[in-house]
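Follow-up to my earlier ticket, as requested here are the two runs.
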Amino acid sequence: MLLKPIGTVRSKLSELPLAFRDGDLELRPETLAKAAKGSISELILNEDFVECLDGIEEFSHIIVLYWAHQIPEEGRHSTKVHPGGRKGYPLVGVFATRSPARPNPICVTTVELVERKGNVLKVKGLDAVNGSPLIDIKPHLPSSDAPSNVKLPDWVRALTSYFSCLRRKPTKKADADG
């Protein structure tokens, strides 16, 4: 399999909100708050792919796939993690999580498309670190990307609520960092 980056992320984030440390995940609340504040990131596409963007500006949201390049090699061999780095949640397989620590550290985020200028897309809500290689971009289609009657484990609902609280109440350090 040959995977070739289509571009690079330009972001204010210098580290992942969820990192791999000591065999498990570690949540960095300050980084999560910074990512959640709706900061603007740029997707800089290689010139070879500029034509691939034609028509993208007609969508309000896009799906961004990127490579979590800061995940250490040992994180690519992790099979189980505590979701969100929270030890109170069950230890589950990485494929049951959105953990960046996985055999292929491919991450996916749906973001708001703010504008397009040539080969640069400005987006809001991306959790990728500066310099992350872009793998793909797709338009968000609610009819395909938001199925109904979704089943989720209780720990996912609790974790979602916990992350929502962190996003609403950023730490003072995160406020100072912008």
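Run two:
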Amino acid sequence: MVDLAQILDREGAYLEGKVVQRILSGVPPPNAPSTILRKKSTKTLVDTGDMVGSVSHRVVVDQDVVRLEVGIFDPAMIERATTNEFGVPSNDADTEPKDDQRIPTRSFLRYTFDREIDSVVERLEKQIARRLEEEFGK
């Protein structure tokens, strides 16, 4: 039997690790001087460590649909994560990222997913095919 939830859980753990790596790598642009003074650190996206510690994954099974979700699901961290992922415009009329944003866009989720999706899909295809071959023969 092909346990799709188990296969997705492994890929979820992989993506979760990649998102954490991205956050800890120091996502550009650099912090503003005022932020560095407040935080006493130049490390972007990391202040208390709460946000990076909130990155997780889950496999959701709903009848015949199995879905992998990777991100930040802690309600206390969602606003902080969204603010950093998309930035905050200089004025409420702006909808696209601009150089003069109050808080710059520092994509850690979308960036990671965009970079990793092809390899994740390839591994999923191979794992599922291998399991089907084992189950039903060649």
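The only thing I checked on run two: The CA atoms of residues 18 and 112 lie 7 Å apart. Let me know what else you need.
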